[in-house]
Structure formats: C-alpha cells, structure tokens
Amino acid sequence: MQYEEINDPSTMAHPQVHGVVVLARNGDRTECPHDPITYKASSTATTPLGEVQSHQLGSFLRETYINSNSPSHIRGISPDLVDLSEVHVRVKVGSEGAAVFDSATAVLQGLYPPTSKNRITLANETTVVAPLGGYQYVPVETVEPVNDRSLESWTNCPAFQKHVENILKSDKIRDAEKKAQPFFNTLKDFVFGRPLNMENIYNVYDYVSSELVHNKTYAHRLPPTFLEQTRGLANLRENAIFGDDRIGGIGNIASRTALSSVLKALQRIAFNDDPLQFMLIETTYQPFISFFHQTDVVKKHPELAAIPDFGSALAIELRRAPPPDAREFLRFRFRNGTHSPFETIHVFNHHEDIPLTEFIYRLENSVVHSNREWAQACQSNSVNSWFGVEGADANSRVTDAVIGMSAILALMLFAWVGSNVVKRFRRRSYVRLQGDEMINASHHVVHYGTQGEKSRA
User: Fold this and answer.
1) Which member of 83, 221, 334, 349 has the greatest number of CB atoms within 10 A?
2) CATH of 9-154+242-386, one of 3.40.630.30, 3.40.640.10, 3.40.50.620, 3.40.50.1240
3) Cα→Cα distances 357→9, 164, 271, 361, Å
4) Nearest-CA neighbor of 203 among 339, 41, 437?
5) Chain mean position to CA 18
6) Distances, alpha carbon 321 to alpha carbons 194, 271, 282, 315, in Å
7) Phi (first) and psi of residue 381, to 5 degrees
8) Is the pTM of this model over 0.70?
9) CB neighbour list of residue 227: distance below 8 Å, 6 or more residues apart
10) Sign of CA dihedral 404, 405, 410, 412
C-alpha cells in the first residue's frame, strides 16, 4: 500500500516535530466473540505474539520520535529516562480490556526500554538500579466505559444499535450475504456450528484468523483463500457499521469521541508552557475505521475502509514551521500492522499538512467532548449524564456526586432522627414520674439551654 507524498510549503520548510499523538490498536489476542448487534464482548487475553507486536510498535515509535538522529525526532523530548510530564497514556479497558492494557504496557516497554540510567544513589553512597536492568515504569490512565465513554462509545448506545440494525437490513449487506452463500456452504466445515451470515461474519473472521495463527492442525486444513474471503466480508460489514457519510453521523461515533482526547492533547502540545509532548491512546480497531471516514481519508484511499491489523498505529504529528511562519501543522502517518512503514496520508482532501486551527474548525461540531454529549448523540438516559459528568475526570466527579448525595441523605436522616428524639424527650419531660423511674430519668434526660450548654434535669 503506497500513499502519495507531495512536497508542500510546510514540508519544504522542514518544520520541527513538537509532539505526537498516537492511536494504536492492541496486539494479537485470543478469540473474542461479541454480540453482533450490541457489540457486548466476551473475555479475551493477549498472547505472547500480541505482546511482541506491541513491543515492536513501541520500538518503532522510539526510533521515529525519541531517537535524536531521526528526522521526525520530537524536539526536546527526554531521550533515555522517561519524563512523566512529557508522556501521557490513555488505555481503553472496556471490551477486550485485558488485551488492550497488556498491549499498552508492551508498547511502553519498547518506547522507553530498561536503562542502567534508571538508578538512584542513596545517602550511604550505595547505587541502586531499578529491577530488570533499569525497567521504566510509566503510569497509564485506564478509561472505563462505565465512567468515560471516550474510548468505547458504541456499546450501550441506543442510536448506534439502531444504526447497526439498519445497516444489516440494507440492500448492500443483503446482496453481499446472498452472493456469499456458496462460500458459506463450503466454510461451514471450518467454523463448527457458528452462524454463517453477514450479521455474524466478524465473529467468524475473528475465529478463523485466530485458529489459523494458533492451531497447527486447523492451519493445515484451511483452504488458502478462505481467510481472505472471510476478511473481505468482515471488512465490508465493519466498514459499513463504523463509517458514516455524515461527519457527525452516529456511524462515526467511535472516532467522534476518541477525537476529544486527541484534540485536547494537540492543544496542550501546541501550548508552550505545557510539557506534554507524546500521547499514546491504546484502543481497538473501531476508531480507526471511523476516523478515516470522518476525515474523508477513505475517498482517496478506499483500501483503508477496513479492519486494521493488530499492532497498527495512526500518528498525528504536530509540526511547527520556523519563523516567520509560526503556525502549527498536522501530519498524519498510518502504519497497518507491524511489518509496514509509516505512510503519510492527508485528511479532508488536502494534499499537504493541515493547519491545526483548520483541523479543529472542521471537526468542532462533530466531536463528542463529554458523557453528556455522548448521551445526547446516543439518545440515551445515561446515569452519568444525570450527574453532568464530563471529560476524563468522570470517575472522580461521579464519586463526588454520589458522596454529595449520600451526605445530603445522611443529614436529612440525622435531622429526622434528631427531631423525633427531641420530641420524645419533650414528651418524657411532661410525664409524672414516681419512685425508681424518677431517679433513672434524672440521670438520662438531657436538656439544651438557649446558649447550647448541657444541663441535667
């Protein structure tokens, strides 16, 4: 796959790379069936192959952006020891969460490998190197769809579910299913009872591709073209579902929410007083398809209207031209899988790097920036939207809201109990007591004076 590389003013001026946002797909994992309508997924786990793929991606990103000899080197970024103020990582932990998290860890191991420089000298002059030869621990922000919909916006979304149902009823999908019936009839002996139709074709492809990689007997039996045919049908289905002709259409919801994190990171990188220079967003395949539709990339590169391979990455470079032109430009580079180089692609039918301001302007009415906006787009009465939860701090704000409501309820209960106790005490004060009862009462009934001082009756 080759992309046209055109000389443009920003390229000719050799602008410096000031920062990069990378959208990365997880590495190889075990089979992960999901509901073909709701996309609710079963559990899965990364494999050693997936960890190697992600580590290779991290090493590739290091050579491209961290190595000072690279023409795309990020100006001023720490080359050996990670500076945690310069790097931020967001990881999707919803569907396929375990595999995505492990993949992010492997990417970071390649991006900032162990180094003997990761050491400390103690007061007694003893030098201690971090474990595993100087392993570097980079914290990650986990993004759970329960509290933050930015990296998994297509599940529990009524409008998207309706969109899926409509796509599966469309003439395009029905015609594809009709034409694929002869292939389905020959494939049935290799899927062991799994439904063979366009509704379930992604699950079929996921099973076939996983078995082909991990099951030697299966790999010897599967006819040579079956994987390609299955993948072609799965690409047709997922592209139709996770794409939309309208920039703000519900089919693009995966990238519309993910782009909120991207735009915030780019704006931080562009701000000179913010130290952020590298953002990694580890996710699954869905945002890639939507992004290429939302930014019109598929019009020039229809081959990208497909499921990206494991370990794929989209890098968005913020480049600043030298004076007197101090504008920021964005260059988009895509790498499909771990065996292809970065190739430059252009968004919104540009033939050159796009100014950051224009990119933001073109997207501003389609990007979903908060859980409240997500609920509106999905026509969903989300509990998070009731609390007004927005952005990446959704978890803490939900917690604060729950604590606040709990405190109010506790105060109301305390007031009710207190008023009843006072009423009870007041009633006791008017009861005529005799004998031992009067003695006990004189020790246990407490009155509060007008100045708040306690006195015994």
Assistant:
1) 334
2) 3.40.50.1240
3) 17, 33, 13, 6
4) 41
5) 23
6) 55, 15, 29, 19
7) -90, 70
8) yes
9) 208, 209, 212
10) positive
For residues 313 and 57, is the Cβ–Cβ distance under 8 A?
yes
Distance CA(448)–CA(455), nearest Å, equals: 7
What is the tens place of the pLDDT at every residue in 260-305?
Answer: 999 999 999 999 999 999 999 999 999 999 999 999 999 999 999 9
Q: Rounded distance, CA 79 to CA 85, Å?
A: 14
User: Identity (one letter) of the amino acid at 78?
Assistant: S
Look at the block and give the residue holding tokens 């050799």.
14
Using 70 as the pLDDT threshold, list the residues of the chain that sit under it: 1-14, 381-457
**Is-cis flag, bond preceding 324, omega within 30?**
yes
Distances (CA, A) of 8 to 5, 16, 392: 9, 15, 36
* Phi, psi angle pair for 118, to nearest 5°: -80, 75
DSSP calls for 70-95:
STTPBTT--SSS--TTTEEEEEE-ST
CB atoms within 10 A of CB 24: 27
